[in-house]
Amino acid sequence: MDLDRLSDEELIERARSESGAADTCLAVLYRRYYTKVAGWCLRISGDRQGAADLAQEVFLRVHERLGGFRGDSRFSTWLYTVTRSVAINRGVAARRRETDPLDQEGMPEPVAPEPGADEMAEKGEILAAFREAMERDLEPLEARVLYLHYVDGVPLAGITEMLNLQNKSGAKAFIVSGGRKLKRRFGRWLARQSAGGTLS
Amino acid sequence: MTDHAPRLTLDDWLRAAYEDPAAGCPPPESWLEEELAARTPEERRRLEAHAEHCPACAAERNLARDFDAGAEAPGVRPEDVAFVVSRLEAASPVRTRGSAKVVPFRVPKREAPQVVPTPSRSWDWRRLAAAAVVILAAGLGYQLFRPAAPPLPTPQNGGVVRGGEVEAVSPVGEVAGIPSELRWAPRPGASSYRVRLSAVDDTILWEATVPAPPARLPAEVVRTLHRAVVYVWSVEALGPAGERLGASEPARFRARPSPEGTGPL
Question: Could you report the per-residue pLDDT of B86-138, keeping only the tens digit for each?
Fold first, then answer.
């Protein structure tokens, strides 16, 4: 049978049901996505060595987790959730090992204690205020860069490439300016809440 | 503020702010082209309108669009793609002959691994002992890594997942709304149960040990669950000393999408 004619889901089903064909089916399946995943990893890593390491880890995780794939979504959608998850975990870990551009500006990170169960309402207010600050005080591009870097773990070089930023220092400038605005607005808000005793 | 309270950093706040259901953000994979294509024009319009003011979704849309573009994304050089692909080809996770890499599917094997000593005129007891050690090691390895039973199909429209050592009762399959508790059939002799709720990519969303069914999901966990998204849960029965008595098969569920235009994105 020409395996290339089978859909992704048919290949997985065949690999699942025929032990002798599993390796061949999975090799065909993965090879279909090597280029797509490679392109994405290059886009967000900013360098090809990092992209190669990331792509290898992606397919390792995909292979480990494929037994849990039940076909509730398309394989390609599932592949994206795994790829994104691996990239975020790696990216966030790497970012935390590096010097934060906001630290270089001498600006401490906004911090607050973790609220208990009875403080969830207050936490909801904080989260709403945070979104409001992100969406009203920051330029859309600043907010997007902050999110990509701090939540999605995309390196600054990757963001600069992805968003086609043409300024000299690329994404770093947006991190610094956006972070400064966020700190200015959110720092005061946190201080006010703390003074009111709701967070202590 | 107490000295023991964990201090939240900027990324914690950003993540929490946009995972908050009040933000109304769809799952990140919603921005993939094929997922958008499966939606109605009105749903797509609402999503795009949301991303216009939501930096988190605008960022996720960037990531998803780049995934769709793959090697065709601007700025991606063919020679770099070839380099990464060559690394992938060289280190494929698919098991190769003689290797011991991970096998994702537990396909029942028809025969146990065998090691048959080659007949020789000069066998002595040391060779026999060595062969016995090899056979024992192979057998032990097979027992440790042998395939488990294939997973059971998920029942449609509710029901229970049977066949595991513990029966997951609800939620299973497609359910009307976001569940607030997990139910299973009690197992005789169990002193407690360890329950776990995960996303389909195995990210653990919540786990707890409870004395008996049901396990109520904390409100902050319920708030992070989305309609039309598949989640997986399982339960383990534990004995008086915390020993594992049995476990359920993973049970999958999803809440029906809201009628168009009445719910969050």
Answer: 999 887 777 544 444 555 655 444 444 444 444 444 445 566 666 667 766 66
Centroid of chain to Cα A183: 22
- B-chain CB neighbours of A69 within 8 Å are 200
With beta carbons less than 8 A apart as the criterion, state whether A73 and B230 touch: yes
With 0-12 / 13-18 / 19 or more C-beta atoms within 10 angstroms meaning exposed / middle / buried, residue B210 is: middle
ipTM: 0.83
Residues of A in contact with B83 (CB under 8 A): 48, 52
Helix (H) or strand (E) holding B174: strand B173-175
Report how far apart, in Å, the C-alpha atoms of B139 and of each of B99, B115, B130, B136, B146 are.
17, 10, 14, 5, 10
Integer Cα distance of B71 and A187 in angstroms: 42
Claim: this prediction has a pTM higher than 0.80: no
Best to test chain A binding among B99, B102, B105, B256 (most A CBs inside 10 Å):
B105
**pLDDT tens digits for A88-124?**
888 877 776 766 666 655 444 544 544 454 555 567 8
Q: What is the phi/psi pair of residue B81, to 5°?
A: -60, -45
